[in-house]
Amino acid sequence: MPTIAIVGAGPGMGLSIAKAFGGHGFEVALIARSKDKLDTLVARLAESGITAEGFPADVSDRTELTAALSQAAERFGAIDVLEYSPHSGLTMVDPPDVTVDNLQPAIEQLLYGAVAATQAVLPGMLAAGSGTLLYTTGGGAINPYPMLATLNTAQAALRNWVINLHNTLAEQGVHAATVAINLLPSATAPEGVPHADPDDIAQLYWDLHTRRDRPEQLVSA
User: What is the pTM for the complete model shown?
Assistant: First the structure.
């Protein structure tokens, strides 16, 4: 059976993506810091008949992240799809206030973590001549929000790199793409807040994996 590894797995988008792919016969490797959270997600997926296993790791620790993905590949045989969406938080920083120190955490988590995760799974995908690399960003990666200068800078860097991956790996059978979510991924929200059900958004990830026709998907109201 094919396997998807979800880095930054949680009860929102991570669970919905796991259900979307698991519903199409995928086994699921879940990676996040909290073992208890992973155990809960594994149990919820089992209720839907989806085989999953958790591999605790902090995405900011590149050695730990690489080891978790290696363990997942050993457990399931291979990683066919990587989905990377760590929870970076919404630290408010205006553009003139960006410093190396306050930018570094976002770069470490969003960009360096994505690069490390990719390097862990890409050799196997290239050897197989197939694979999918999916990365979650926000709408600010495309049109930045002034109050999210550090987060958007890191997201934009990730977006640039992933498009370059798409342009260079497609002929080798590996599809790379980003999903920029520019609304609240929730089935409900306060009046006036743009939102969409995570289960509906997750179907766009499946569409990117199967159609393989674009390097980017914007999710907006």
Answer: 0.96
